[in-house]
């Protein structure tokens, strides 16, 4: 075999499998560093400012803004944020640096005047990096890290006094997940002791899955092992930083939190080297759907997508969790029917309980209008949902299969998704106000307490006659006239409702009639229930003539 299996972690008393995520971690966005370095076209100063403002708006309190000592663009961006007072007082900017004296010195110059700074020191620690890249021993790699700590203390030592701000320290053993665990503990402990966090001071120990190389449970074991074996745990915040090489960054992050991590580094929508960093939007909304407040504002995901796409110049996949264009859309008939029923039962203050929708789309700024879309895979429930939610037609349940069949025939001839306008047009043309064979014109009615009298011109094909009749109701009166003209039918279903509110509101009625053992449905609109009902009955009778040309009236 060309590839070697990852070693299992000997952790017989692991506790993370029984843990739950009950609160939000500390979030740190690395979009402006990890994300930016992975772009074909790195961000301009203007784009960085635009993205930084979005991160602040979403609610990030820790934002890694770059590697100012390694790039003039990132140095200028850092200075621009500070000199133009663009950093809120409750937001810490994080800067990255290697363990080189001149880089650390320039990093200190870059952040002068800032109020809250996290200095993020990193150096590779994995066996592969030590042997292939650096050709150094374990002790020599530890010395690199300790020199970095020494220089940070030297050049940032007077930061709080000179800048009236606070400096915090973060250390990352890069390629942590590919580093021997005992050695990862040793180098981390050496750095912790050298930094010497005390009292309320918290040092950040970031444990990155720089290259995801094992299943998420292995990462969780590694995090729990570190959490229980490092020194001064009470003064250390353990941070996870997962990459997505195996497609498991979200799961690795969640299991890492269950294993004791306090903090998460990631990006909005998961941009990053190779297959990307963990997507903080997905992790946060996963928490939200479990009743945990992520303490980030995802109430307008479309704005997040718009800014991220504009700045990164990367299109978001239509199936991206929570934010993709189609993640709240069902095409399958059975799914549509279940969603329709769930939405009908859902009450505003109840727990969310709708099949196939793990989150209420409105919670992330989406509407219900795109939940159901109709193509050749769709069914009656989806069609009924669109007619009701978009156009106000509350098609009776018994009529839904008839409507669904008609729309299915239209969809089979159309390559793609039917627009809402195409659906309602097909419904109205086929079922409503039909006059292709039977027709009633100049209908006059007089209603008193006892009976309803009607008079009108009744058409049957090319022949017509003026008819009068009195009965207990308008439908009975019209029905008797049709029977007198030789039209035999039985009413099997009827319903009506207002299409809008107000004194001029239109009414729609639905009729099901049985003619020669076959059931036909029609619908009609009118200025009141009586006229709408007559029109619906006439439509149903016309459909019983098996005239299927939907363009006829």
Automatic annotation (TrEMBL):
Mg(2+) binds at residues 34, 241, 243, 277. It comes from the Bacteria. Keywords: Acyltransferase, Amino-acid biosynthesis, Branched-chain amino acid biosynthesis, Cytoplasm, Leucine biosynthesis, Magnesium, Metal-binding, Transferase. NCBIfam families: PRK03739.1. CDD domains: DRE_TIM_LeuA. Belongs to the alpha-IPM synthase/homocitrate synthase family. LeuA type 2 subfamily. GO terms for cellular component: cytoplasm. It is found in: Cytoplasm. Its cofactor is Mg(2+). Residues 434-553 are annotated as: Regulatory domain. GO terms for molecular function: 2-isopropylmalate synthase activity; acetyl-CoA C-acetyltransferase activity; magnesium ion binding. Pfam families: HMGL-like, IPMS_D2, LeuA_dimer. Catalyzes the condensation of the acetyl group of acetyl-CoA with 3-methyl-2-oxobutanoate (2-ketoisovalerate) to form 3-carboxy-3-hydroxy-4-methylpentanoate (2-isopropylmalate). InterPro entries: 2-isopropylmalate_synth_dimer (IPR013709), AIPM/Hcit_synth_CS (IPR002034), Aldolase_TIM (IPR013785), IPM_Synthase (IPR005668), LeuA-like_post-cat (IPR054692), LeuA_allosteric_dom_sf (IPR036230), LeuA_N_DRE-TIM (IPR039371), PYR_CT (IPR000891). Pathway: Amino-acid biosynthesis; L-leucine biosynthesis; L-leucine from 3-methyl-2-oxobutanoate: step 1/4. GO terms for biological process: L-leucine biosynthetic process. Its EC number is 2.3.3.13. Residues 25-302 form the Pyruvate carboxyltransferase domain. This is 2-isopropylmalate synthase. Homodimer. It catalyses: 3-methyl-2-oxobutanoate + acetyl-CoA + H2O = (2S)-2-isopropylmalate + CoA + H(+).
């Amino acid at each position: 075999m060309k590839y070697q299996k990852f070693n299992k972690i000997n952790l017989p008393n692991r506790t993370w499998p029984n843990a739950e995520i009950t609160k939000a971690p500390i979030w740190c966005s690395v979009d402006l560093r990890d994300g930016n370095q992975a772009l074909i076209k790195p961000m301009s100063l203007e784009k960085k400012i635009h993205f930084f403002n979005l991160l602040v708006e979403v609610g990030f309190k820790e934002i890694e803004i770059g590697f100012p000592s390694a790039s003039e663009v990132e140095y200028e961006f850092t200075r621009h944020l500070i000199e133009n007072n663009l950093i809120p007082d409750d937001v810490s900017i994080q800067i990255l640096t290697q363990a080189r004296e001149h880089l650390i010195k320039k990093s200190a110059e870059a952040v002068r005047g800032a109020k809250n700074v996290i200095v993020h020191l990193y150096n590779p620690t994995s066996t592969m990096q030590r042997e292939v890249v650096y050709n150094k021993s374990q002790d020599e790699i530890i010395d690199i890290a300790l020199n970095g700590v020494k220089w940070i203390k030297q050049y940032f030592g007077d930061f709080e006094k000179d800048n009236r701000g606070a400096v915090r320290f973060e250390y990352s053993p890069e390629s942590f997940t590919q580093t021997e665990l005992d050695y990862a503990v040793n180098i981390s402990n050496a750095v912790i002791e050298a930094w010497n966090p005390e009292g309320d001071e918290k040092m950040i120990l970031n444990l990155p899955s720089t290259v995801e190389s094992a299943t998420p449970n292995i990462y969780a074991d590694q995090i729990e092992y570190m959490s229980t074996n490092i020194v001064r745990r009470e003064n250390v915040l353990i941070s996870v930083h997962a990459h997505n090489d195996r497609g498991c960054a979200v799961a690795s992050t969640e299991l890492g939190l269950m294993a004791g991590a306090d903090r998460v580094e990631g990006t909005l929508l998961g941009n990053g080297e190779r297959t990307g960093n963990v997507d903080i939007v997905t992790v946060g909304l996963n928490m939200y759907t479990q009743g945990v407040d992520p303490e980030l504002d995802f109430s307008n995901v479309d704005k997040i997508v718009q800014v991220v796409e504009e700045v990164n110049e990367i299109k978001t996949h239509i199936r991206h969790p929570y934010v993709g264009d189609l993640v709240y859309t069902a095409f399958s008939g059975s799914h549509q029917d279940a969603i329709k029923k769930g939405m009908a039962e859902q009450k505003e203050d109840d727990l969310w309980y709708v099949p196939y929708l793990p989150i209420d789309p409105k919670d992330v700024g989406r509407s219900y209008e795109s939940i159901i879309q109709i193509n050749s895979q769709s069914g009656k429930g989806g069609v009924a949902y669109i007619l009701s939610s978009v156009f106000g037609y509350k098609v009776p349940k018994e009529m839904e299969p008839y409507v669904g069949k008609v729309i299915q025939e239209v969809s089979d001839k159309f390559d793609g998704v039917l627009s809402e306008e195409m659906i309602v047009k097909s419904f109205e043309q086929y079922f409503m106000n039909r006059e292709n064979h039977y027709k009633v014109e100049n209908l006059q009615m007089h209603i008193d307490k006892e009976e309803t009298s009607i008079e009108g011109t009744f058409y049957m094909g090319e022949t017509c006659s003026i008819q009068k009749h009195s009965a207990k109701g308008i439908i009975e009166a019209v029905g008797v006239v049709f029977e007198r003209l030789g039209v035999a039918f039985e009413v099997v279903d009827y319903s009506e409702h207002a299409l809008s509110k107000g004194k001029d509101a239109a009414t729609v009625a639905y009729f099901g009639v049985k003619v020669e053992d076959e059931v036909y449905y029609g619908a009609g609109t009118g200025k009141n229930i009586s006229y709408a009902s007559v029109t619906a009955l006439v439509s149903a009778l016309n459909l019983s003539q098996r005239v299927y040309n939907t363009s006829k009236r």
